[in-house]
Design a protein that fits this description.
131 residues, alpha/beta, 6 strands, 3 helices, 40% helix
Length: 131
Protein backbone atom coordinates (compact mmCIF):
# COMPACT_ATOMS: atom_id res chain seq x y z
CA UNK A 1 0.00 0.00 0.00
CA UNK A 2 1.34 3.39 -1.02
CA UNK A 3 1.03 6.45 1.19
CA UNK A 4 0.20 9.64 -0.64
CA UNK A 5 0.97 13.05 0.67
CA UNK A 6 -1.64 15.71 0.65
CA UNK A 7 0.70 18.12 -1.13
CA UNK A 8 1.12 18.06 -4.85
CA UNK A 9 4.68 17.95 -6.29
CA UNK A 10 4.12 21.23 -8.14
CA UNK A 11 3.14 23.11 -5.02
CA UNK A 12 6.26 21.88 -3.21
CA UNK A 13 8.74 22.93 -5.90
CA UNK A 14 7.07 26.20 -7.00
CA UNK A 15 8.64 28.38 -4.24
CA UNK A 16 12.05 26.81 -4.89
CA UNK A 17 11.79 27.60 -8.61
CA UNK A 18 10.74 31.18 -7.93
CA UNK A 19 13.69 31.69 -5.55
CA UNK A 20 16.09 30.15 -8.08
CA UNK A 21 14.72 32.39 -10.82
CA UNK A 22 15.20 35.54 -8.70
CA UNK A 23 18.73 34.46 -7.74
CA UNK A 24 19.58 33.97 -11.41
CA UNK A 25 18.15 37.38 -12.37
CA UNK A 26 19.99 39.10 -9.52
CA UNK A 27 23.27 37.47 -10.58
CA UNK A 28 22.65 38.43 -14.20
CA UNK A 29 21.99 42.09 -13.30
CA UNK A 30 25.07 42.25 -11.08
CA UNK A 31 27.24 40.83 -13.88
CA UNK A 32 25.93 43.41 -16.34
CA UNK A 33 26.66 46.23 -13.88
CA UNK A 34 30.19 45.02 -13.15
CA UNK A 35 30.91 44.43 -16.82
CA UNK A 36 30.44 48.15 -17.50
CA UNK A 37 33.00 48.98 -14.79
CA UNK A 38 35.68 46.71 -16.24
CA UNK A 39 35.08 47.37 -19.92
CA UNK A 40 38.18 48.64 -21.73
CA UNK A 41 37.58 51.48 -24.17
CA UNK A 42 38.58 50.90 -27.76
CA UNK A 43 41.76 52.49 -29.05
CA UNK A 44 45.20 53.08 -27.70
CA UNK A 45 47.02 55.86 -25.92
CA UNK A 46 49.19 58.14 -28.03
CA UNK A 47 51.73 60.46 -26.43
CA UNK A 48 51.88 63.47 -28.72
CA UNK A 49 54.55 66.17 -29.03
CA UNK A 50 53.79 69.44 -27.26
CA UNK A 51 51.65 71.70 -29.42
CA UNK A 52 52.45 75.39 -29.51
CA UNK A 53 50.40 78.15 -31.03
CA UNK A 54 52.25 81.45 -30.52
CA UNK A 55 56.01 81.40 -30.35
CA UNK A 56 58.62 83.38 -32.20
CA UNK A 57 59.91 81.31 -35.09
CA UNK A 58 63.61 80.91 -35.65
CA UNK A 59 64.92 79.31 -38.81
CA UNK A 60 62.88 77.86 -41.64
CA UNK A 61 59.14 77.35 -41.40
CA UNK A 62 58.03 73.89 -42.55
CA UNK A 63 54.35 73.53 -43.39
CA UNK A 64 52.64 70.16 -43.58
CA UNK A 65 49.09 70.37 -44.87
CA UNK A 66 46.46 67.62 -44.75
CA UNK A 67 43.55 68.09 -47.16
CA UNK A 68 40.01 66.82 -46.76
CA UNK A 69 40.93 63.80 -48.91
CA UNK A 70 43.89 63.05 -46.55
CA UNK A 71 46.45 64.12 -49.16
CA UNK A 72 49.71 65.36 -47.62
CA UNK A 73 51.44 68.53 -48.79
CA UNK A 74 54.93 69.56 -47.70
CA UNK A 75 55.46 73.28 -48.40
CA UNK A 76 52.64 73.11 -51.02
CA UNK A 77 54.04 70.04 -52.81
CA UNK A 78 52.15 66.74 -52.80
CA UNK A 79 54.10 64.04 -50.94
CA UNK A 80 53.48 60.55 -49.65
CA UNK A 81 53.89 59.70 -45.99
CA UNK A 82 57.27 58.01 -46.62
CA UNK A 83 58.49 60.98 -48.68
CA UNK A 84 57.44 63.31 -45.86
CA UNK A 85 59.41 61.26 -43.36
CA UNK A 86 62.51 61.24 -45.60
CA UNK A 87 62.25 65.01 -46.17
CA UNK A 88 61.98 65.72 -42.44
CA UNK A 89 64.99 63.50 -41.77
CA UNK A 90 67.08 65.57 -44.22
CA UNK A 91 66.12 68.90 -42.64
CA UNK A 92 67.79 70.10 -39.44
CA UNK A 93 64.68 70.08 -37.26
CA UNK A 94 66.31 71.62 -34.18
CA UNK A 95 65.93 75.24 -35.30
CA UNK A 96 62.93 74.90 -37.62
CA UNK A 97 59.26 75.43 -36.90
CA UNK A 98 56.82 72.76 -38.07
CA UNK A 99 53.23 73.73 -38.77
CA UNK A 100 50.57 71.13 -39.46
CA UNK A 101 47.52 72.62 -41.17
CA UNK A 102 44.59 70.23 -41.17
CA UNK A 103 41.34 70.47 -43.06
CA UNK A 104 38.38 70.13 -40.71
CA UNK A 105 37.11 67.16 -42.74
CA UNK A 106 40.45 65.32 -42.70
CA UNK A 107 40.86 62.06 -40.83
CA UNK A 108 42.15 62.39 -37.28
CA UNK A 109 44.04 59.13 -37.81
CA UNK A 110 46.19 60.85 -40.45
CA UNK A 111 47.00 63.66 -38.00
CA UNK A 112 47.85 61.05 -35.37
CA UNK A 113 50.21 59.37 -37.84
CA UNK A 114 51.97 62.67 -38.47
CA UNK A 115 52.28 63.34 -34.73
CA UNK A 116 53.67 59.86 -34.12
CA UNK A 117 56.20 60.38 -36.92
CA UNK A 118 57.23 63.74 -35.42
CA UNK A 119 57.59 62.10 -32.03
CA UNK A 120 59.75 59.36 -33.52
CA UNK A 121 61.96 61.94 -35.25
CA UNK A 122 62.50 63.80 -31.97
CA UNK A 123 60.56 66.93 -32.86
CA UNK A 124 59.81 68.76 -29.63
CA UNK A 125 57.02 71.08 -30.80
CA UNK A 126 54.45 70.87 -33.56
CA UNK A 127 52.07 73.73 -34.27
CA UNK A 128 48.65 72.57 -35.42
CA UNK A 129 45.86 74.59 -36.95
CA UNK A 130 42.73 73.90 -38.98
CA UNK A 131 41.51 75.60 -42.14
Amino acid sequence: MKVRSSLNDQTVFAPVLVIAFFNFMFLFIVLIIFYSFFAVPAGYEIRMPIMATRNLETGQVITIRVSAENVLFLNDKVVTFNDLKRALLKINIANNTIYVQVDSRASMARVGDIWEMCKGLGIAQVKVSTF
